[in-house]
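Researcher: Here's the sequence for the chain we discussed earlier.
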Amino acid sequence: MGRGAQGHRAAQISLREVLNRRRAEGERARDERRAADLARLRKLQQMQEDLDSQVTVTVGELEKQGYAVLVVADFEGERGNSMVLIGTLADSMRRAGRSKDEVNQFLKDAMSGDFDHLIDVLDQHADVVATTRGRVAASLRELVDEHRDRQLVENPKLLENEIERLKRRIDGDNPAWLH
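Model: Thanks. This is the structure I predict for it:
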């Protein structure tokens, strides 16, 4: 065998080795991808099981169990109207079996102050506060403050007014706090 044939054979061997290495690397990469896919599949299946095992309760079911539920869509337009919030909770209190006297006392108290007072009264009487998107909140105050905060970020004058309002509220309208 001449030198040219040996060189050709050496090139074939090294090409074969390169192809074998690439094949092995491809198989290793495919195996790693498969393992990662299997791990993700297990995680997603566990998430699905967790979601399936969560108890979903409707507002009507809660009211049948005696809970007054306040469902809040947003604080813009008609659905953010104080009277709509009062009416929504009063209706829920009735469906939850609250006495006529309790509902009337709620209505009287709810209409006896400003918006902040109303929010406090609604929180006192609502057993559950939720959004139409299914979020259960700790309180209506939490939702109102989140809404206000979003507005304040967009309007510096509103932010300044809110700071002053809170200072007055904290200090009982004592102007000493403001200086």
